[in-house]
Amino acid sequence: MDTITGSIPVLTTKNKFVSIKIITYICGMENKIYTFDDLVFNQHPNPGYQPGAVQAVLRLNNNVEVSVVGGGGGGLYGDGVETFEMAAFDSLGKFIKLGLDDDVIGWRSRTEITEIMVKLQQDLVVG
Question: How would you write the pLDDT of the chain (127 residues) with one tens digit per residue?
């Protein structure tokens, strides 16, 4: 773990400036590029989907959130094993277009999900 140290001036209640030493620890996670393998799938929270439907939600370092779902025998655009449906949201919770006209894209492989995740972490132009 890396450490950055420094000091900042702080005005005290007696109107005097004192120097406060600050230490910031950097764990290195801010540079991690997340992939499909970082997704943790759980049972889909919507009770309207059939048993077996799964969902993984992951917030990337740039505050983009991805949701990847599949399975359940219908209603989702992926089988939840080899193919998946994906959506992405900006820091305000608004959809990020993952295609020309699509907020949600389906029937994507694990490799395709990883490729989209990498692009989302590099910039917001997915296309």
Answer: 444 444 445 444 555 555 444 433 344 456 799 999 999 999 999 888 888 999 999 999 999 999 999 999 888 999 999 999 999 999 999 999 998 888 999 999 999 999 999 999 986 545 4
- Measured CA to CA, the distance from residue 80 to residue 41 in angstroms comes to 9
Residue type, 21: K
* pTM of the entire predicted model: 0.74
3-class secondary structure per residue, the chain? CEEEEEEEEEECCCCCEEEEEEEEEECCHHHCCCCHHHCCCEECCCCCCCCCCEEEEEECCCCCEEEEEECCCCCCCCCCCCCEEEEEECCCCCECCCCCCCCEEEEECHHHHHHHHHHHHHCCCCC
Cα 66 from chain centroid? Answer: 5
